[in-house]
Amino acid sequence: MKHILTILLLFTSTIVYSQVLSEEVATGGSNQVFYNLDNGVVKSVSNVNWHLAVKGGLLGGTVRSNVGLTVYNVDDLDYWDFPAVMNDTAYTAYSEISNSTKEWRLGAFNTGGDPEFAFEYGWGEYSQGNGIFASRFFIIGIQVDAQTIYKQFAIEKMQAGNYYFKWADLDGSNLDSMTVSKADFSNTDYGYVNLLTKEVTSERPSPETWDLVFTRYKAAIQAGPELFYYPVAGVLSGPNLWSVQLNDVEDPLTVEEPDDIQYSPEIDIIGHDWKDFDLNSGNYLISEDTVYFVQRYYVDGESFLPTGEVYKIMFTDYAGGTHSFDIEAITTGSINENGRTIASFAIANNIITSGENINVIYSLSAQNATMELFDVNGNKYLSREINSTNGLSNLSLNSNGLTTGMYFLRLNVNGSISTEKLIIQ
């Protein structure tokens, strides 16, 4: 359910959009819901019919575990011991490991790898020109109805666009295997693998189309000297979204983005701790003085640069798997000079199909401005000189010949740049 209030204000050639939305995103406890800041819910995907999420693309190597899969670090044996002869309770001798909640590329099976060493993936090591080959194995616990089935599990290799998985009972019997081709989920960044049915799905939407995912995941809980992983319901940021959390805010409705704000790419900044379960009432209590600011970033060479609106998010309720929150777009792309806004612009619809016009609203008081379109690799597809305006002006750009994917529309004023994201489907 969505209630929208949109206000367009014009102050000395500055475009300011104030958009206040009251949103309800329902996961039902068994789904993950992908959400776009501009357009709302993108897709709802089952969170109970898969065990592994495997990374596609040219390199890949990331293997994440679903919330219903328990992974144990077998740290006293290596891959050459697989399958070992173990007793039925062997898993109790090992520590549980889980996905990183800081970045997508570090899954449970990548635990133990050096994040600064590009050729070490935790579960295996890269051999130049050949692929990634296993150096260790794991114990996994798969939930089947009310029972947990334990298996020895290894990622034998990733080679020629394929992942090769092997597993066996704890005593080493009933060896089984599965091959997963990246071609089976080339439309997205991760494929979902069900080890029981040996099925691979590509239901996860492409990362360019969503900013937040409402889902259940495992969070680390410190209990004395022990670290436990506990299933929680919360919100993780997409790979292109950076966030910041403000606590103890006196008036969340009117608070503005601080000048010294420091955004973070960690994916659990919003996370789950904006709510606490009250044992007395049986309801969740919402942290009403907590506010989140989020903004998309893109890679420009070795730098990360912000693009598009800054959004403010305030949670208002959580019940029955439904997340309720207010979201407000508080800025558009603008360029300032000597404390004065000299240019600003916004894309009227930032998700289009190839061949549709790219409609841009802009305001410009400076001279020598250029509107440029680039893809994610920095290739320029068009460039248009624009003139100063008296108020708001419209610009229509042709998208004929552009393939599907993410692009960046840049307003360049004498070397100062403001950027907006464009998706072509």
Account of the protein in words:
0% of the residues lie in helices and 55% in strands. By secondary structure, it is an all-beta fold. The strands form seven sheets. Strands 7, 8, 9, 10, 11, 12, 13 and 14 form an eight-stranded antiparallel β-sheet that branches. The chain is built from no helices and 33 strands.
Attribute tags:
mainly beta, disordered N terminus, eight-stranded antiparallel sheet, 425 residues, six-stranded antiparallel sheet
Write the layout of secondary structure elements.
Layout: E1 2-11, E2 14-26, E3 31-36, E4 40-46, E5 52-55, E6 63-65, E7 69-73, E8 95-97, E9 124-127, E10 131-134, E11 138-144, E12 147-159, E13 162-169, E14 176-181, E15 190-194, E16 199-201, E17 212-223, E18 226-237, E19 241-246, E20 275-278, E21 283-286, E22 291-300, E23 303-319, E24 322-329, E25 333-337, E26 340-347, E27 351-352, E28 357-364, E29 369-375, E30 380-386, E31 393-398, E32 405-413, E33 416-424
Parallel strand pairs: 27-33
Antiparallel strand pairs: 1-2, 2-24, 3-4, 3-17, 5-6, 5-15, 7-8, 7-11, 9-10, 10-12, 11-12, 12-13, 13-14, 15-16, 17-18, 19-22, 20-21, 22-23, 23-24, 25-26, 26-28, 28-31, 29-30, 29-32, 32-33
